[in-house]
Amino acid sequence: MSALLNAEDVKAQIEAGVPGSRVRVIQNGSPSAQHSLLLENEHARAVAEFLRDDAGLRLDYCSLVTGVDWTDRETSEKVKVRKLVQAADGTEQEQEVEEVRKTRVPGYLEAVYHLFSMEKKHGPVILRLRTANRTNDTTLPSLTPVWRSAEFQEREAFDLYGIVFEGHPDLRRILMWEGFADYPMRKDYVPPADDVEVAEVHR
Amino acid sequence: MGQDLKELKIELSKNGIFTTTLEELYNWGRKNSVWPLTFGLACCAIEMIATTMARYDLARFGAEVFRPSPRQADLIIVSGTVTKKMAPQVVRLYNQMPEPKYVIAMGACAISGGPFRDGYNVLKGIDRYIPVDVHIPGCPPRPEALIHAFMTLQKKIDEQSLAGADRPRHLQAELPSEFPVPEFGEHGLEPSANRDVFAAQPGNPLKVLQ
Q1: What's the pTM?
Q2: CA–CA separation, B84 vs B65, rounded Å?
């Protein structure tokens, strides 16, 4: 059993070790409580190198890279507002009313890295990187130059989610064939219609 | 063979005279020496291997000789999930087999896509591209099921007539022995199915519909 690292401690070490970097801890509410660290894209490479080389952390093993597709979503919250309200007798009165306010949160793609230390026998430290959006700006810095084991898994995330890893030595599709145009693990992926239609013909 | 001839044959054999026909002899030989292709795709292949081993012993049916080359095989057992990436290779292997050739689609995946049917990467049944003689359901089918499929195939071979309008595909020059290999397209395999596969089977009602 590997020793767990406190996400807040790691965050403090990163911010002290890599000048200018800001890290956000994203809480995991489940019993595993594996909180993750959201990095800024411009400092991700430097942070990764720090995590790997720092004498206290020595996170020398990247065990997993995966993609996550977060679609556009709407959050609604109830806000109390003071408003003129028509009362039963016809007169207008200022009252405190509850209003539902909706905010649209644009979607993004996320790459998740799980790091362990073979030397210190601790981990995991979970990193997240987020793209600007899901459509035209889906680039992230590649961490393959830091952990070679990320190479194929970053290709997989590129293949299935369309995350473009800048600095990856060989970014090609890995599971689907060359010339395939879609990103099938995205939540808005629709399989080709004739796949289903032919099944009806056969029946 | 007609019913009268069959009765005559039985009557003669009661009197110590044994007769046969060329067709019977030929089919008897063929059905008892079906050589499958050494070819497995997924977990069904493990059951196929178990079927050939001592406990279930497919050798009892004359099919113990798994050939490593499609050129020497009579039967392709599509044992397992056919991914879209693998489908062209399966069709190509089928095309490389000499006639007469037979196909057993083994397991839920091979016959329909199975649990992966709604996925983006799995072919929804190998019968979209090659003519399947026997379909076996199951996930995976037990060795007994494969043996049953095999016996069904033997029965089918035994009933094939060498002449006449309903003779099998390999004896009808105008029917294809090779089927087009699908190509990788932008969104999936192209074409997504070959509608002529079932039309190529003699006596198939779908042939009349088209």
Answers
A1: 0.82
A2: 29
